[in-house]
Prior knowledge:
Blueprint: H1 3-9, H2 14-23, E1 35-37, E2 42-45, E3 50-53, E4 56-59, E5 75-78, E6 83-86, E7 89-92, E8 97-100, E9 105-108, E10 112-114, E11 119-122, E12 125-128, E13 133-134, E14 139-141, E15 159-161, E16 166-167, E17 172-173, E18 178-179, E19 184-185, E20 190-191, E21 199-202, E22 207-211
Parallel strand pairs: 1-4, 2-5, 3-6, 4-7, 5-8, 6-9, 7-10, 8-11, 9-12, 10-13, 11-14, 12-15, 13-16, 14-17, 15-18, 16-19, 17-20, 19-21
Antiparallel strand pairs: 21-22
Pfam family, one: Hexapep
Protein name: Acetyltransferase-like isoleucine patch superfamily enzyme
Keywords: Transferase
Amino acid sequence: MNILKEIRDRDLGPFTILKSIYLLKYCEKKNPLSFMVHSKTKTYIGKNVAIKNYGRFNLGFSKTGTTFISKDRPILEFCDDSKLTINGIFSAGPGSCISIGNNAEVILGNNSSITANSKIISHKKIIIGNNVIISWDVQIMDTDFHNILIDNYEQKKEIVIEDNVWIGSRATILKGVTIGKGSVIAAGSVVTKDVPENTLVGGVPAKIIRSNISWRK
């Protein structure tokens, strides 16, 4: 890999390179281009943070390498004993936020992406599979943040988004949800229950619109 050529082709500024090199000390692999964050990214790094970068991670860049599609700064937050695993190539566009709480974990699959301005907030565990497309202004949260005083209540539950899922703009994925392979979440939906494989859901709360669907980029 010609590192200097890629830096030049992607028009990576010196502050982007310096910030990314700083974060490499938390990464299992020290390849300078395996974990790239835009210079405008707000970062917080707690204690005992682990980043297992088995691929390539990009935060804050659009496909053209600029940030004109969002005025918000990207956010990358690692609280104490948090873990991020990158199992391939994952990109999160301008204004995106990845926040991992104490003892929480996020696992990102290969060839998956966030367009811009979306949030992944984990206080327990969020798994995103391969070939997942997450559109604008999506929120994925495995916690309610506050306790509701009822019997058998759980504030935090794991979220699993399986392979080949398309999540439309301004959708919200709430705690405890598994979205099956090949499914589509319509724009503006609030997903509170599991979604079967190859299913289109939409609405508030999201309901099945059509089964046995297929889609492609």
